[in-house]
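Table S2 (continued). Query chain:
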Amino acid sequence: MVLQADMLESIPQTRYLSAESYISYRAIMRTFYLEYQNMHYQLDKDSILSLLHKDSLFVSYTVEQLVSDLDQLVKWKNLTPIQDPHKAYTIADFKNRQFQYMMTEAALEVERMTITLENLYTRATGLSSSAFRRIQKALHTAEHLDEMSLKDIGEWWQELQEDFRRLRQNHQDYLREFYGPNAEKQMKSAEFIAYKQHLIRYLEDFIQDLQRSAAQIGAQLEAFTADQVNRILTLVHQSELAIPHPRSEQTPLWQEELWQKEQGVWKSFMTWFTGKNSTAQQVMDVTNEVIRRVVQNAAILVQMQDMGVSNKAELHHLITLFSNVSSIEDAHKLSALVFGAQQAKHFTVNDERETDRIDSSTYEERPMEYALQPRVRTYKPRMDRSGFTDKSAEKAAQRQKILEEERQLRQKITRYIQGGKLDFSALSEPVPPEVRTVFLSWVAMANLAPDGYGHTEYGQRFVLKRRGNRTCNLICTDGTLTMPDCMLLFEENKNG
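Corresponding output:
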């Protein structure tokens, strides 16, 4: 894109949004916009003043203030004054310029933009594949534009652009939510574990739809010859010229500018759907990155909840402690301390740790001291008197559902681990997507560790072994994944 000098000029129609008296300016423009929605295109100052007085903020708003504000909005090209001779009952009235006012096209678009901004954070976005199907259908129709009227061609072109705009905007708005500070905080919460599987499935379905639909649409676009594209755009250009417009505000080169715009839209289609570095491929890469972050955060959460700590190491340390006691009395004391821990009170405190390892055993942590609040007569704990709804049954049902899903997933995963190892190049049975996600999270976990070790969600410890720089094909139920040739070697786990 080449920046022209006229593109960088100031836009006077936006000045009312930040001017000193922006409250009255915005109220006037919003009144004009709402009346425009009701097909009232022209308003006089008496009608405007009457509408403004309905709001308590403008009860004392005078006609002199209104006239001054209207004159300023006219200077900024937000309003167009139209002299109304029908209200000139005398020569004096005629000389006093009884005007009707009308919003300019630019001001109308600015006000639409402000409404969009006001509702930006309440607008629901998602990854829908319906736009792909409509675009495919529209491109099939493009082969028969010669048989259509100019009016139908214009409607076809507008619908095609609108579907393309929604496709781009929806995926941008949805994926952007995963890169904000709130998203990062949410993905590190405990509630995210129950939600992550549904999210991953949603994103994977979108990737499959995008991959399939983008390839089909790209093939359609590349099938058009240069003459066909030129013919399509010529018919579109003729259809837009056939729409009557007032010529007063159009530049001498408006037809040429319109032709360049139409060519730019078609070029955007080609850039989005075709080529190795197409926008569709970039969207797939970003979505895959989101899935990777989701899996990684979920794995870290599982380990932080002690689901990844090996009980084997703790029991081995406990046996060592018993073997080093000097008498049976000391053994009894140690036994009482260890096996009576269920009756002890545990406190979660923020204390500085000696290591950042999340898989370290509690026996490896140094003892700490924590001062409790003394129970004195002057101390009164804060009481929360707000009521709450008992949702224990719902939570129990949800927990049971999650546990059942995890049990079924573990059964699927176990089938692929043979002889204490998971060799990706030797797998003969196709891998379902949910199992593939777990396998890749294990590989990612081992890659992040300096020693190449990691823990599964089920307490198994493994090490990653690579076969040089070779690659292998992982056969999946939804396609084939090319990945580094490697295997996972599992240590013996008595806990299964």
